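Recall that a protein's primary structure is simply its ordered list of amino acids. Everything else, from secondary elements to tertiary packing, is in principle encoded there. The following example makes that idea concrete.
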Amino acid sequence: MYRRDLRDTSQDGLLADMATADLAVQAAPSPTDDRIAYALNREDQTDIWLREDGADARLTSEGITAMRRGRGDTQWFAWGPDGDRIAFVDAEGTLSAVDAETGAVEALTHHDDPDIGLAWGDHGIAAVTNAVSRAALVLVDPDTGSQRVLADDDYLYNDPRWGDDGLYAVRAPHRSLFDFEAELVRFPIEDAGVATDPEVLFAEDAVRVQTPRPHPEGDGVAFVHDAGGFDEIHYADGAAVDAVGDGSVERTTVHAAEAAEVGAPAWHPDGDRLAFTATNEGRAHVGVTGIDDGADAELLSDGDAFHTGPVWLDGNVYTVRGDPTTPPQVWNVSAGEPAIETGSVGFGERLAEPTEFTFRSGGREIHTVVYPPVDGFGDEVDSVPVLVHPHGGPTAFDDFGWDYRSQYFAALGYAVAMPNYRGSDGYGRAHRMANDDDWGGGDLDDVIDAAGATADAFPAVDADRAGIFGGSGGGLMTVNALGNTDAYDAGAAFYGVYDYETFVDDTDDVGWQLMKRELGDLATDLANYREASPIRDVPDIEDPVLVLHGEEDTRVPISQSEQLCDELEKHGKRHELQSYAEEPHGFSQRENVVDAYTRVADLFAKYLRVDPDDGSSRPHRPDEE
């Protein structure tokens, strides 16, 4: 499939630079002074760093687990109440603590299954763990490592947070996986310690609760729910929490915005106001609001950017902020400048500025982020080939944050269209749930229509030269699109699900629970699993398919790609499977990222007829350097 002399290989260096850029993940101020701990991903490893008096020190060296998603982020590391140690989940999923002065690390748990979220308070470290059962809640003594189970029941627990009156958390029935229905609970603090029988503070059918944030002086809790169709911040004071009896705590609406997802509330230490994020059409900005019903809110940021995880430090709001030309870094929103600059290496001068448009599909508006070629679209009609890049999830969304994959292809002269198809988060509950019981239906129509819609919106785009690529749910969409339309000339599918019937036997608990919710019980609804599987449409695929997968993937095992390629071979379809050792669900090692995406670039250069004609290309395969 490779003809490297058909494209400008000088951009491979840009890809390597972007793939190894430093990425800030989360930040946490010390409870006792002005130090700030932050998680930084550098060269395929995330570690905790400490900013103190303007200098940075690396506290861990063996890697930690920390993920950056958006307004509902789990807390992956947390300061102890005395500000002397930081608890974190290491790269193997073990709950550990590091001394903030010496860097000495101590493992607190020794589980075979990972810990996945934590909060440190006066009564210990509350941790969500898979070691007891899926997403159970335990209390760990930070000095001895002894463990007490708080909740091991019919629910998944998430995002524990300490208040003066108890431990708050959200929980969801196993099939809901927090994206459909979740409720707010409190484990009261009693004379004997933390109770194991939680009180349900807020629960409604088909309503998702997120991000409980106890008041800093013990006066109740702020939290987010989407009963109004979009995420909103609500507040229940201490008297209301104490009086709750039926899961319907009396509360006020602190902040809601039309057609925006408002979340990630963060209390000012005085307890009189909250910082928050407001997400709309792929942008997430930061604001501050009072806590009275209908209080005025002030946005502190604007433009094409994506902020996550606001926190307060010395009266200023800090977040992790990324934009299309700047990798995520710790940002002082109040001052409008980076607090800790990391890893930009002059990207702003080398990358594209994305734009956007919407198109109608099946009666819905599909918001689409578009990266033009770095030099812009130009005036010549049908001069720019288009790549459609459906995101994974499917409950995720594409935004105006850092996206080096799309930037790489923009640098090669493509337009890259990223449709937030039905099922995407960030556009309200109705859109997020619009593909329930319809996987491979309306959502696939949105993806299929995206290439033509992009050409309609931008005359320079040539819909007759269109490719498609994606990972996980996006890999599934890629194969599904190739088997159900002639809109695309080639496709690259990364670590996708292709046969739901066999996927049930191979995936982890999260994948299995998601299948049960969306497709039903395998014993009674087998037809749903088979109908939704892209592998059934292999006989109708007429264009080349590059399949890529990590050999250590437990969410979507490589057997899915092997099975797809067996079927492609059976039907005489042009394809290739490329696997990568030691890669899990998603590629992160520099050499593998560069190899994978240059192979994809070769594929599209060959089949979309993109000839740089400037003498910069080299006629060899990726493994011949």
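The chain has eleven helices and 37 strands. The chain has a mean pLDDT of 92.
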